[in-house]
Automatic annotation (TrEMBL):
The lineage of its organism: Bacteria, Pseudomonadati, Pseudomonadota, Gammaproteobacteria, sulfur-oxidizing symbionts. It comes from endosymbiont of Tevnia jerichonana. The gene is gltX2. Residues 325-459 form the Aminoacyl-tRNA synthetase class I anticodon-binding domain. It comes from the Bacteria. This is Glutamate--tRNA ligase. ATP binds at residue 238. One of its GO terms (cellular component) is cytosol.
């Protein structure tokens, strides 16, 4: 049997971290078992579904690298098929028309509430003839007796009494099919073997199993993933900061860091924290996912992000960084190789946004000096070291780290000062701040022309400062 899993988002908003984790678990399960992963867009709620949301979901999946083998399939393209199945249920007497008025249903609900019972439809139209010509919904004839057992891969055995389930609507008055029907038809037609989804759907599962049975089909295996909470214990929402996957991209996170974070959210393998994608695929076990909800912890995500910034191939980091350089209006092809920049900055940034900001100096002159750094390092005592460096660098033909290092060393020796007395003013002159990669690397990245120009700017600044004193 080929394992087939699916991710079935409703396009009523962006791809949020909860959805991404569900997608990741489904994807991992398929990959681990050499199966197929299907993407299905559940867009039957015409009022709330938007094309932007579809794009946001596809974009999020692509950014995370959760590539699907089939789809995206759109439910709105499948209405004919849903109606065909509804017709089949009607023909077999397993569904019926119902024309109960709103008022009647409201009355039922109120009475149930008063008696502290779960509101449920009382089966009033089960044995009545309702003409197809008058407005009506179609209800599924749910079995009245017996139990439905969900042998959940995460939750274990969960049993539901049929007496607690009512005859749910499978087609609305306007002719549109409802969620429980479309999911059943799709899971059946798409030959889904394992349904991994949020546990807010656990209550739908016995209804879906009953419809499948009515159609003469067995049911897939189910795994209901618990929800994600914010660090304050409330359901994760915008209030807790970013919840959209693409916002994490904007904020400078690496997809591998977010995936690693998400896989560990409610799942563990010993005390291992770092998982490459291949390791996730190898080690992930759906039945080891926690039953309880997990809390989102941004600090830990940042820690993982920093780890991946340091450990990933600089080529990969550079590829992701170029997006953030673009956000600063920097074209990284007009300057040093971004791979060298990523390599030089890997120890210095927790996010790619930070990395882009502290690397802008490689591509353009900075606006103003950091006040504290300028005050401390661009003073009259720095004039001579800077002038000598300018002279030495202007004459330098080979702009390599080794040659640059040698020049800084020579000037310090000639002036009989420690290297820092030369390197620090030079650094502030080049980047505007007191921190940057090694001075040789910094010089290399800035390039000769900009280096000379920025030293002149620093000398002018020192002169002006002296004049004002
Ligand atoms: N479309 C549903 C949702 O976004 C998921 C349905 C399912 O996975 O069965 O919540």
């Amino acid at each position: 049997m080929t394992i087939r899993t699916r991710f079935a988002p409703s396009p009523t908003g962006y791809l949020h971290v909860g959805g991404a984790r569900t997608a990741l678990f489904s994807w991992l399960y398929a990959r681990k078992h050499g199966g197929k992963f299907v993407l299905r867009i559940e867009d039957t709620d015409l009022e709330r579904s938007t094309a932007e949301s579809v794009n946001a979901i596809l974009e999020g999946m692509t950014w995370l690298g959760l590539e699907y083998d089939e789809g995206p399939f759109y439910q709105t393209h499948r209405f004919e098929r849903y109606n065909e199945v509804i017709g089949e249920l009607m023909d077999k007497g397993l569904a019926y028309r119902c024309n109960c008025s709103k008022e009647r249903l409201e009355q039922l609900r109120e009475t149930a509430m008063k008696n502290k019972q779960k509101p449920r439809y009382d089966g009033h139209c089960r044995h009545r003839e309702v003409s197809a010509d008058e407005p009506h919904v179609i209800r599924f004839r749910n079995p009245l007796e017996g139990t439905v057992v969900v042998d959940d891969m995460i939750r274990g055995r969960v049993a539901f009494n049929n007496s607690e389930l009512d005859d749910l609507i499978i087609r609305r008055t306007d002719g549109s099919p409802t969620y429980n029907l479309t999911v059943v038809v799709d899971d059946m037609d798409m030959e889904i073997t394992h349904v991994i989804r949020g546990d807010d759907h656990l209550n739908n599962t016995p209804r879906q199993i009953n419809i499948l049975r009515a159609l003469g089909k067995g049911s897939p295996k189910y795994g209901h993933v618990p929800m994600i909470l914010g660090d304050d214990g409330a359901r994760l929402s915008k209030r807790h900061g970013a919840v959209s996957v693409m916002q994490y991209r904007e904020d400078g996170f690496l997809p591998e860091a977010l995936l690693n974070y998400l896989v560990r959210l409610g799942w563990s393998h010993g005390d291992q924290e770092i998982f490459s994608i291949d390791e996730m695929i190898e080690l992930f076990e759906i039945d080891a996912v926690n039953k309880a909800a997990s809390s989102f912890n941004t600090e830990k995500l940042l820690w993982l992000n920093q780890h991946y910034i340091k450990e990933d191939d600089p080529k990969r980091v550079a590829h992701l960084l170029s997006y953030h350089m673009g956000a600063l209006d920097i074209d990284p092809t007009e300057g040093p190789d971004l791979v060298e920049v990523a390599e030089a900055q890997r120890e210095r940034a927790k996010t790619l946004v930070e990395m882009a900001e502290i690397s802008a100096f490689c591509y353009r002159d900075f606006d103003a000096y950091d006040e504290k750094a300028a005050k401390k390092h661009l003073r009259p005592a720095a004039q001579e070291p800077l002038e000598r460096m300018r002279e030495a660098l202007q004459a330098l033909e080979e702009w390599s780290e080794a040659a640059l290092h040698e020049q800084v060393e020579k000037v310090s020796e000639a002036l009989e000062v420690k290297m820092g007395k030369v390197a620090q003013p030079l650094r502030v002159a080049l980047v505007g701040r007191a921190a940057s990669p090694g001075i040789d690397v910094t010089l290399k990245l800035v390039g000769k022309e900009a280096t000379l120009r920025r030293i002149d700017r620093a000398l002018a600044y020192i002169a002006e400062r002296a004049a004002q004193a």
